Amino acid sequence: MPAGVVCAAPPAPPEEVKKWFPKAGTRDAPPKFRMVCFHCAGGAESIYTSRGMRQPTENPMVLWCRDQGGELMACELPGREQRRKEELFTSLAPAAAALFPVLAPVLQEPVPYALVGHSVGSWMMFELIKLLMARGIPLPKVIFVSCFPAPSCPPLQRPWRPSRKMDDEGFKTEARTWDVNEVVFQPHNWKTFEKMMRTFFLLFDEYECAARPAA
After folding, report:
1. Which of 33, 38, 59, 193 has a Cα-to-Cα distance from 67 of 20 to 30 A?
2. What is the pLDDT of residue 1?
3. How many CB atoms are located within 10 Å of the residue 154 CB?
4. Could you please report the per-residue DSSP string of 89-120?
5. pLDDT per residue over 16-68, tens digit each?
6. What angle, rounded to 10 degrees, do the helices at 121-134 and 92-107 form?
């Protein structure tokens, strides 16, 4: 890591931080560590922070961070929950570039941190790490990834079918292989979710693993 690194940017406005990290709270003292988490393509930050249909009790990660004196920062991409009216990203590199000026100043603080990526969130994390490396930002102490192939996996070896050219029924069939809740496919819901889901799928269907960006 280059010596004498300074902040890549001044701290982002609080409202911008709140937009990307809705549940991140204010602190009286620096945390012992941070867990920065990235959700799956069709998910939201609540998979790490909230109760829900599949998580009826307090999220274990919230409890663990609280008990250990850490800070949980779960990222929320546009188009989800509180950001549902914002335009969706169709590729991950621009999403990471938009997040970078918000998160990089936080990661410059003398607090060790880990990055957590679930499903396509692991590729979002990868894109962010490339930017951190290129611009001399301290790197995480550890990363955690789950339920996805490596970003370098060639398109023909990815364990799914590209969906852009699928008709309606073909896309539903493909979506079911991702364990999408059947409620989504009911006619009155499908009118709402189809366009959104097709956009979500582009994040991994058309992802290209590029080289590390220039500083």
Report:
1. 38
2. 45
3. 8
4. PSSHHHHHHHHHHHHHHHHTSS--EEEEEETT
5. 999 999 988 766 788 999 999 999 998 899 889 986 656 677 888 889 999 99
6. 60
The CB-side HSE value for 76 (13 A sphere, CA atoms) comes to: 27
Query: How is residue 196 annotated by DSSP?
Result: H
Tell me the C-alpha distance between 129 and 136, whole Å. 10
Nearest to 129 by CA among 100, 102, 105, 153: 100
Per-residue pLDDT tens digits for 115-168: 999 999 999 999 999 999 999 999 999 999 999 999 999 999 999 999 999 999
Round to whole Å and give the CA distance between 12 and 21.
Answer: 12
Average pLDDT on 66-73 reads 94
Asked whether the beta carbons of 163 and 201 are under 8 A apart, the reply is: yes
- Which residues neighbour 158 within 8 Å (Cβ) at sequence distance 6 or greater? 149, 204
